[in-house]
Amino acid sequence: MLGGVTVTFLKKDGDLVTPGEKIALLSGNTLNILQGERTALNFLQRMSGIATLTRKFVNVLEGSKAKLLDTRKTTPGLRIFEKYAVKVGGGENHRFGLSDGILIKDNHIGAAGGIKNAIEIIRKNTGYGKKIEIEVENMSMVKEAVAMKADIIMLDNMSVPLIKEAVDFIDKRAITECSGNVNIDTISQIAATGIDYISVGELTHSARILDFSLKNLVKINEA
Where in this chain does the record put each Quinolinate phosphoribosyl transferase C-terminal domain (predicted)? Predict the structure, then answer.
């Protein structure tokens, strides 16, 4: 009970729901229920929308080896909830923050003067045990990343044929991930390349809400 309101859940996280189905019953002080209604529904709708979209992507990937990842493109202040919603939908989480892993991006490569320099600087200044992931955009960069023994190679904004070429060249010498311009219509083709992970920003930045409403208040309790 919170604020004089008791909630009885009829569904648990990850359960499928159908239109018109009840998911919870509330009882208690009507004023408290109505004061919290919109905030609670906003959270519920937002997270359920993310979980639902994630499940759609996961269903498309069924039968492939590829795993679905989210990104850090989340709503400020809500990352922990949105990434939890991805997990509920059957996806997996990428980094929560910059300190959770080393990802060398294009601007880092530019600042360091190339892939070789960037990886050498990271290895010199990072403790043992952290994997190094590097973002690449073409086969020349793929080959340099493999030569430098990067742990994870992210294929950024590549066409499906180029992803396939890169995955074949890497040949399990690094974990492979792709990102950029992935959607529900293209993800099965990308998975067919043999990629290990596919990261999709759309899961959190573009998911439509799942519409819920509070209905059938039957008694006003003024206590």
Answer: 50-215
Q: What angle do CA 130, 71, 89 make, to 5 degrees?
A: 110
Helix (H) or strand (E) holding 6: strand 5-9
Residue for token digits 């020349």? Answer: 140
Q: Specify the 3-state DSSP secondary structure of 31.
A: helix
For 37-74, give the DSSP string: HHHHHHHHHHHHHHHHHHHHHHHHHTTSS-EEE--S--
pTM confidence score: 0.90
Per-block average pLDDT, block size 10, for the chain (223 residues)?
81 94 91 91 97 98 97 95 98 91 94 96 85 96 97 97 98 97 95 98 96 78 50
N residues, the chain: 223
Q: Which CATH class is domain 63-205?
A: alpha beta
Domain-wise residue ranges, the chain: 63-205
